[in-house]
Design a protein that fits this description.
Layout: E1 2-8, H1 12-25, E2 27-30, E3 33-37, H2 41-60, E4 72-78
Antiparallel strand pairs: 1-3, 1-4, 2-3
Amino acid sequence: MFVIVCYDISSNKLRNKISGILKKYWFRVQKSVFECDIESETKYKKLLKEIERCLEVCSKDDTKQDLDSTETVRFYVLRDRQKVNIEVLWEGLPVSENPPFVIL
């Protein structure tokens, strides 16, 4: 199955934790959008639980006051990979965690 996850989180602490989890499994296509081809429902559910645990812990600690009611983590699940058609209208430089270095 092909899954797209996107999030809108204003808390730096929570956003960094969520993106850290996603980077382990997923390919980042934009700053807050990841894609992944997941071979089984079990692996997908495992990832969901890991994200849920992170959200629960962060909502209970001191980050709670930073959380906004509009913050979301959304998963778009396309179960039939053959029916997925991705169109990119303009592809700039790939999103990178670290800027490129030039050594002269």
